Amino acid sequence: MTASLLSVSRTRSVPVAYGLWLVGGLCGLHRLYLGHRLSAVGMGATTLLSLPLVTTDPGLLGLVTTTVWALSDLILIPEMARGLDGVAAPATA
């Protein structure tokens, strides 16, 4: 088989990523879509653990952290999608 048949398209849509950011930005849905699984899990866990503790200092700090993180992702989403396009998919044997 040729290499083109083995490669998997990893192109992600920037508008879809922004839509996911709008719906679930604090939970990291856009990061999960763009292939940043570990940071998506960290973002989601921080948000979900902070919600019940929002009246305490650690809970408020967690929500402020993920809010700043999500707002910075507004600028970073196009670069994350572009970086994903440049990554070659591993060939299967």
UniProtKB/TrEMBL annotation:
Keywords on record: Membrane, Transmembrane, Transmembrane helix
Transmembrane intervals:
16-34
Write down the superkingdom of origin. Bacteria
UniProt-recorded name of the protein: TM2 domain-containing membrane protein YozV
- Organism from which the protein derives: Muricoccus pecuniae
